[in-house]
UniProtKB/TrEMBL annotation:
Organism lineage: Bacteria, Pseudomonadati, Pseudomonadota, Alphaproteobacteria, Rhodobacterales
GO MF annotation list: metallopeptidase activity; transaminase activity
Keyword DNA-binding belongs to the record: no
NCBIfam families per record: PRK07483.1 (NF005685)
Pfam families linked to this entry: Aminotran_3
Keyword Cell cycle: no
Domain of life: Bacteria
UniProt xrefs under InterPro entries: Aminotrans_3, PyrdxlP-dep_Trfase, PyrdxlP-dep_Trfase_major, PyrdxlP-dep_Trfase_small
CDD domains: OAT_like (cd00610)
Protein name, entry field: Aspartate aminotransferase family protein
Membrane-crossing residue ranges in chain numbering: none
Record-stated family: Belongs to the class-III pyridoxal-phosphate-dependent aminotransferase family.
Keywords assigned by UniProt, alphabetized: Aminotransferase, Hydrolase, Metalloprotease, Protease, Pyridoxal phosphate, Transferase
Organism of derivation: Cognatishimia coralii
Length: 443
């Protein structure tokens, strides 16, 4: 009997033993293509010797120092490198151990900022439906995914949610893509006015929605309008790039493709690429100085903030990403998308293939014309995950929403080191899994 508390007590996963390049191997030696990079984590693949060496060397010199006493060379160098490549205006970096911690830090920083500048009444947060921002209570409260929130409601923070910018399902017939994006963004203005403009502290969104919707990018002009609205009402814009950041969409920061800068940005996952648990929150000079010149103390912190070994790993990862690897992501993503379109474009169960860079989603439907979602009792996503796993492919399927506003989907986020023959492996194995599940369900 395993004493590890599993995610799913009904089905214990095999024990992983070896990671090499784009593959993971279990205790029986079976190979799995890491088609989702874990949860969009393993951007460099497995066994990257440069990152391993950087970690070993940091362990030899100073494994850990509490940031309450000492900063460290890797933390300083990683912050410099991130700021060098970050959207304009993001000037300070706060290192944590993962994505939920980064989001918690972002929410608390936004709140403290308004207290410091004498607007303590600003405490309301607006997020989007069907979103996910982490599993700690604060991050869960801002997330708009009903299934994840349901059993923990009422949540601790009062958050309201607007529609996501989800072209496949929310765009009206005859509406231009641009007008659609403006309509979606204008929901933010309506919500700010409904809540009271001087009550709202922040709007949080993912530039490209990952886990809960399957790589849904916003349309052109959406985030520019969001930025305008936030500026008009003095609301902070928090972009959550925990999943879509660190090169996943083809630029180091996904916000770069929206041509805007947030006030706060969260990153994690690809930052440590799975070699160490690390996340970060970047903020503007305006916010940093409000706190520095005010109480002088961000009232937040965990024991492992700025962990030197995690920062050493992150530094080696970001050096690789910015040293040419991210430049390959857009074209590799296009290759994989083209191959998916060739293989599944005519499949009656596949309603949409979308994404950006190596962050690609496929949404499954019962009917392509009406976009009707599959019967939830089919548990299509769970079956697909199991069938893909049997075929030797790790992918990231999710169920649709209960209200039928979103179908089952699969998210692909392979390592950036993947080559075309690896994509053939992904498409073949996914094809076998989709065929098996369709046949089993008689679809
Ligand atoms: N934010 C987003 C957008 C995520 O996708 C996730 C995780 O999937 C998180 C936050 C939480 O990150 P973590 O699981 O590292 O706490």
């Amino acid at each position: 009997m395993s004493h590890v508390f599993p995610r799913n007590s009904n089905k214990l996963p095999p024990v992983g033993k070896v990671g090499a390049g784009v593959h993971l191997f279990d205790a029986d030696g079976k190979a799995y293509f890491d088609g989702s990079g874990g949860a969009a984590v393993s951007c460099l693949g497995h066994g990257d010797q440069d990152v391993i060496d950087a970690i070993k060397s940091q362990l030899d010199s100073m494994a850990f120092a509490h940031t309450g006493f000492l900063s460290s060379d890797p933390a300083e160098a990683l912050a410099d490198l991130l700021v060098l490549h970050a959207p304009e205006g993001l000037e300070h970096v706060y290192f944590v151990s993962g994505g939920s911690e980064a989001v918690e830090a972002a929410l608390k920083l936004a709140r403290q900022y308004f207290v410091e500048i004498g607007q303590p009444q600003r405490s309301k947060i607006i997020a989007r439906r069907q979103s996910y921002h982490g599993n700690t209570l604060g991050a869960l409260a801002v997330g708009g995914n009903e299934w994840r929130r349901a059993q923990f409601a009422p949540l601790l923070i009062d958050v309201s949610h607007i529609s996501p910018c989800y072209e496949y399902r929310e765009k009206h017939d005859g509406e231009t893509t641009f007008d659609f994006g403006q309509r979606m963004a204008n929901e933010l203005e309506d919500e700010i006015l409904r809540l009271g403009a001087d009550q709202v502290m922040a709007f949080i969104a993912e530039p490209v929605v990952g886990a809960t919707m399957g790589a849904v990018p916003s349309v052109e002009g959406y985030f520019k309008r969001i930025r305008e609205i936030c500026d008009k009402y003095g609301v902070l814009l928090i972009l959550d790039e925990v999943m879509c950041g660190m090169g996943r969409t083809g630029t180091l920061f996904a916000a770069d493709q929206e041509d805007i800068s947030p006030d706060i940005c969260t990153i994690a996952k690809g930052l440590g690429a799975g070699y160490q648990p690390i996340g970060a929150m970047l903020c503007s000079g305006k916010i940093y100085h409000a706190i520095k010149d005010g109480s002088g103390f961000f009232q937040h912190g965990h024991t492992y903030v700025g962990h030197p070994t995690a920062c050493a790993a992150g530094l080696a990862v970001v050096q690789k990403l910015t040293g040419g690897l991210v430049d390959q992501v857009a074209s590799k993503g296009q290759q994989l998308t083209d191959m998916l379109n060739d293989a599944f474009g005519q499949n009656p169960l596949v309603g949409d293939i979308r994404g950006r860079g190596l962050f690609i989603g496929m949404e499954f439907v019962a009917d392509r014309d009406t976009k009707a979602v599959l019967d939830p009792s089919h548990k299509f996503n769970a079956r697909l995950k199991a069938a893909a796993f049997d075929a030797g492919l790790i992918c990231y399927p999710m169920g649709g929403t209960i209200d039928g506003k979103h179908g089952d989907h699969v998210l692909l986020a392979p390592p950036f080191i993947s080559e075309p023959h690896h994509f053939e492996e992904v498409v073949d194995k996914l094809g076998a899994a989709v065929a098996k599940v369709s046949a089993d369900l008689g679809l």
